[in-house]
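Reviewer 2 asked us to include a model.

Predict the structure of this chain.
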Amino acid sequence: MLKKDLVDIVTNQMDDFLKKDVAEAVDIILETITESLEHGNRVEIRGFGSFSVRQRKGRSSKNPRTGKMMHIPPRKTVHFTMSKSLKNPLANK
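Predicted model (structure tokens):
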């Protein structure tokens, strides 16, 4: 599903709002989540899941094309943990 698809679905379910208003609301939500993660905060959406920032360690790896060893520096990644109410229906399918 693309962001455009999400906006279309929400617009169809909420007839009182214009598509551009729903698109702006979705953009604001995503920007807020992004800013919170940039500050190192955890974002929890009840019934959906939580996003958190994790630090990956630096490591050495081999370039498969050249066989040369290279160093991969430490970096931050976003980790998503789904809620039980999302996990149970997916596990039953």
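The chain is about 40% helix and 30% strand. The beta strands are 43-45, 49-56, 59-62, 69-72, 75-82. We have added this to the supplementary material.
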